[in-house]
Amino acid sequence: MTLAASGRYDPWADALRAAALLAIDPDGLKGAIVRALPGPPRDAWLAALRAMLPADAPMRRAPAHIDDERLLGGLDLAATLAAGRPVSSRGLLSESDGGVVVLAMAERCSSATGARIAMALDAGEVVGRDDRHAARFMLIALEEGVESDERAPDVLAERMAFALDLDGVRVLSTAMPTAAQIAAARVDLSRMKAADNRIIESICTAAGAFGVNSARAAMFTLRAARAAAALAGRGVVEDEDLSLAARLVLAPRARSAPPDQAPEPAPPPEESADDSTPVDQAEANAAADRVVDAVQSALPAEFLAQFLEARAERRVEARSRGAGAAAKSARRGRPLGARAGTLRTGERLDLVATLRAAAPWQPLRRREAVASSAALVLVRRGDFRIRRFVQRLESTIIVVVDASGSAALQRLAEAKGAVETLLADAYVTRARVALIAFRDSSAEMLLPPTRSLSRAKRALAELPGGGTTPLATAIDAASVLAQSERAKGRTPLIVFLTDGRGNVGRDGATGRVQAEADALVSARGVRAANLAAVFIDTSPRMRPGAGALAAEMGAVYAPLPFVEAGAVASVVRAHAPARR
Amino acid sequence: MRAVFPFSAIVGQDDMKRALLIAAVDPGIGGVMVFGDRGTGKSTAVRALAALLPQMRATKGCVYHCDPDADAGACTEDCPSRSAKGAVKTELLPTPVVDLPLGATEDRVVGALDLEQALTRGEKRFEPGLLAKAHRGFLYIDEVNLLEDHLVDLLLDVAASGENVVEREGLSVRHPARFVLIGSGNPEEGELRPQLLDRFGLSVDVKTPSVLADRVAVVRQRDAFDRDPKGFVAAWTKKDAAVRAKIEKARASRGDVALPDEAVERASALCMKIGSDGLRGELTLIRAARAYAALEGAEAVTDAHLRAVAIPALQHRLRRNPLDDVGSAPRIERALAEMFDA
After folding, report:
1. Average pLDDT of A506-522?
2. What digits encode the pLDDT tens for the residues A307-341?
3. I need a labelling partner for B322 at 20 to 30 A (CA). Which of A58, A137, A321, A368 fits?
4. A501 near B CB under 8 A
5. What is residue A367's predicted lDDT score, i.e. its pLDDT?
6. What are phi and psi of B119, to 5 degrees?
7. pLDDT at residue B288 tops 60
8. How far does A451 lie from chain B, in Å, by closest CA?
């Protein structure tokens, strides 16, 4: 399945087609993730989308840190104060009814904000305290993350039909449909008949082949295909429409290789035939194959090798940013109620809470107040309520395990047990766990930082062992990971499970002397970076060398000759970053 | 009002549907936790159930839409049932289903001082929150495993006691808040605390159908609904009405379903065999079996009923060894097979 085999694949043309389909059926397709740094491709795409929409359709930009009041509507503070009674205002989502909401920097959007937007997308309306407003909008989530794990919340990603990657895409002057053509296609779409079984079956088969299980994805594919047919002025969905829809909807969601690439258990076709004749069946299969081909043509060539795995991981990873310990902060993070306090620099007043505090005293104060006071609400210093925010403060435990030598298998099994034990109470300790194993000449990250036990189990199912000991490389790898975790605002803790006897140097050459010298240098790097570490010495007899290495990296030294999962976990727990 | 996808048109997902129906028959079961991937129809099922539930008779003018029979006199002071002389006026209301969004503030959930009353009249008045809205209905939390801890604790506490007690901002209010808590979550995104999980009465796993025909059916139904919501709902009205009638009948007959001693013994033996902690599992198992028997129109709880509800009632209460890859459900299944097939 090379790109050549299935014809040229032009990402820009496809991106424009996606915009056209969105403009035709915004209710059904809901929106798109657009991954690109700010620049000409992104601006050009947004402009193209705008041009295809009715002239009066609103297009509103929402920052990722938008607060709920503004998003969903709530109390209009100025009007409330002027009127002396609560005046509610409409939120951005309902103001964008019939138009587009552009969520800027969607990767910074919290899962809570994501969940609210998702609810509005599902319901097509926003429910306020006493009223409900229509909010049928199309969502364009702009992802600007540089790191691959900086992604929009999954709760949103799942609910939008398309995901376009415009980074590095060349903007060509491609002919695109006019607003009038789109409007005509909208009318055609509403007149189109229900899709026949063959179409739905081929969509479901293709989705299954790529490991796309969500029923939403299949629905999106069907609706995109129908919109494509309407755009082309056809009354029925043709293969061409189906291919385009599958390329746009299924390819970005693909999680596994289709059956001819990897033995993915595809649903046996005969099970599907309850009301179709064998001839239909053969046709459906052929159509499904063409859809699978279309998806493959949109996938980068190296997709099936590693890209795919990385993508699946990234998705989970980006999402599991969810919960963690929280540090109370005056300025940043998610709001956490309000408390009484004085207004100092940098603190934010919670107006509603302040008014609530002042409210019961109004009649009393009015009686006392000087007659000339024109204030509608009499607020005293004691009424001030200060907003408090919570900031996520997570910790990451990086377990670095020596997979070399004869004791490797047992040690690995116990390290795996320790990782799982740590994850089992990750909810309480609020920690993520990562696992790096080292042997021969490299250190390999077997488990990227995660909080999910079920995911860890999958990743840890097979651990290779044996070979030489590249200790320095492992220390470096752990140090890099720890620093990148710290850059993300998490507190790392490195746990080494080794006997401290390296025999492969940094350059990959075997030799105990050079290897141990390199290990010491790497260890110093850990201390210089001020990273917390625990060194669990697994050698049957204690050796001064291991202790020295631990001291060099400023690690807590814990000799544990009989490695056992429970003991490792308790050592780590004792040294884990304090919960706050 | 937007049309809601009909409950009876949902393809497959029998475990989830059964658990929801049991909770509808016996709200005292303690809520349902639904684990599963996105796009498996969790939210659809909950909303569909809500649309299908029989209307409830409520005290007219009561903000908590309290039950004229059960809550009489027990509601808050400003409830008309307290001051009315003679018969209380009532009205028929749909069963409430309240969505609790992630990141909801405590104010919004529990209720807070009514700003309008306080500012304009200087009166201290309580403005009820989502818990009051959910009284006698369902409270649905998508992604309960991402909800703030203190909110989850609060919810579970209210769900267990059936009463919301507010002591804040000079307010001292208690009002009835009996609701069925329905949580959903994806285990890939972090585990749920065990003590929290234990408080849910039933727990079910939903999976994407693995048979192509089912998938096609899901898409076709959904597509038909999207194209013509009103027509689709109309086409399923009869089937939904049948389910509604079944719920109503089961609600009425639930108390009359006999519970033979041997069924209780079977339940206890099963719990001992699989080593579930505490008595909550046994109690829920029996309660769920009874509600299910009522749904099936049976006169007494039999082995078949116990068997049908054993996994949802018990699978989340087993002590799990994190190093054990086998889930709880197969363990229960094995125990069931040994006990009942012997």
Report:
1. 84
2. 344 444 433 333 333 333 344 444 445 555 666 66
3. A321
4. no
5. 76
6. -75, -45
7. yes
8. 6
